[in-house]
Specification:
235 residues, alpha+beta, Nuclear Transport Factor 2, Chain: A, 2 domains, 7 helices, 7 strands
Length: 235
């Protein structure tokens, strides 16, 4: 097997006055003689180049959190305006991490649930979240959305936006922040904060109130009813 090593070195084959630096390629027929063939300097440079190449992961080429939110919001608005509800849900499924939302909404009670309970809770919550997200999009269709940058948050990258009503200048702008987290090879929204009010925290407060009254079975009962009616609330 031939071993191919690429390093940066100075070659003396270029004319005087020209840049003599160029990548050198060494083909070693006997890999066991690498130490004898490659000088310490070349070996060091090879290691540097390889380390740099390995550090370039697919995430390095991924869109920023702001670009991700902007692209998906634009796509969702167009689909909502066109009345393509089925396609809207498909994009929601690409954008939102329902499992993370569900675990965060139940928090202390999540570990107590069985796998079947977790699955049903996540499925029901996904319907409530989609209803809420769709409602907010329809509400701000006549708004101009300005992106105000991204900052680090405890749960992910926080993409700041401000939505302003273009038809009523007297109406106060609405701040809508999207918490984005890298999940696997992509990005997902794990919370939406409107005017400082976290969607996850609101659901958690509702679930805690219900849990105190009727336990988890009551939570699922109410969620089933709300999801079937197209509601965005949990209680």
């Amino acid at each position: 097997m031939k071993l191919l090593i690429i390093s940066l070195c100075v070659r003396n084959v270029a004319p005087r006055g020209k840049d003599r630096r160029a990548p050198c390629v060494y083909r070693l027929r006997n890999p066991k003689r690498v130490e004898e063939t490659v000088t310490p300097r070349r070996s060091f440079l090879t290691a540097v180049v390889c380390a740099a190449a390995l550090s370039i992961t697919p995430l390095a080429f991924a869109a920023s959190a702001e670009d991700f939110v902007k692209a998906k919001q634009t796509e969702l608005v167009k689909l909502v305006q066109a009345g393509k509800e089925a396609d809207v849900d498909k994009v929601f499924d690409q954008v939102l991490d329902y499992r993370v939302l569900a675990e965060a909404a139940l928090r202390d009670h999540w570990a107590e649930r069985s796998p079947a309970e977790k699955d049903e809770f996540t499925d029901l919550l996904s319907k409530l979240v989609r209803n809420s997200y769709r409602k907010n999009i329809k509400k701000t269709l006549g708004y101009d959305v300005a992106y105000k940058g991204t900052e680090k948050g405890k749960d992910g990258e926080v993409v700041r936006t401000v939505a302003k009503n273009t038809k009523d200048a007297r109406e106060e702008p609405i701040s809508i922040d999207y918490v984005v987290r890298v999940q696997g090879s992509g990005q997902r929204i794990v919370d939406v904060v409107t005017e400082g009010s976290s969607m996850v925290n609101n659901y958690r407060s509702s679930f805690n109130r219900i849990m105190k009254k009727g336990g988890f079975p009551e939570v699922l009962k109410r969620m089933r009813k709300k999801a079937a009616s197209g509601s965005t609330e949990a209680d």
